[in-house]
Amino acid sequence: MARTVTPAAPLLRRPLPPGDDAVRLWYENALGWPTAPGAPVRLATGVRFDVLDVPAEAGHAALGQLGRSAAPGRGFPVALGGGRMRLLVAAGSAEELPGLLEWLDWGSLELDLVAIGAGGLMDAPRPPGAVVGGDAGSAARPSPLDRGGSQGVAVWLRPPGPGRGAEASLPTLSAMGTRGGARGDGDGPPDLVRLVNTVATQIHRVRLRRAGATAAVRADGQPLAFS
Predict the structure, then answer these.
(1) E strands within 45-113?
(2) Is 54 helix (H, G, I), strand (E, B) or coil?
(3) CB burial of residue 224 (10 Å; 0-12, 13-18, 19+)
(4) How far apart are CA 134 and CA 148, in angstroms?
(5) Alpha carbon 66 to chain centroid distance?
(6) Which of 131-140, 162-171, 193-202 has the lowest mean pLDDT?
(7) How do residues 16-42 score in pLDDT, each as one tens digit?
(8) Rg of the Cα atoms in the chain
(9) With contact defined as beta carbons under 8 Å apart, do 93 and 116 qualify?
(10) Whole-angstrom distance, CA of residue 219 vs CA of residue 81
(11) pTM over 0.85
């Protein structure tokens, strides 16, 4: 299981206005990530990053399998919300996903795995360490969230690193064989092939486990039949 630490949060140099304005300014100014007009704040995907949207249970299991290469403070950004986990990957990865799943022999199965790329949107988690309304003592921290992310509001499980170089930590297809180790003990994030295969495996396992539990419940409620 991955070791859990609190990643360093980007610090803001000046107070920001309250509410959505503070969130929007942090993403656009600190990270250079474009946002969509309107409220709540949403991040535009396909520009600086794409997103793999998966069930939170499978996502947690996948991060545990990936080990140190996906550990907090070391790996790529991950958000939680509404029982889903959103894994940030390199821009363009969403277009690669269908072919990648076919190549990994997952193409024939229906997986609860959604890739969000160009033209898509992602709910913006509240920035960690943000100073809101001029009160430096009220710096926001990631909200407590259960492993399923059932509270609904998007939060960072692992926030993007400070500065505009956050994309350097994103899993990418072109980095295959250059990041991480064969057992996930490298210093960089896993490549996209390994990430997708690990996530798909855990999604399939969760589905099989739930199907087995459902079948057991139904069988338990059936009367015994004698010939």
Answers:
(1) 50-55, 78-81, 84-89
(2) strand
(3) exposed
(4) 33
(5) 13
(6) 131-140
(7) 445 788 999 999 999 999 999 998 999
(8) 19
(9) no
(10) 34
(11) no
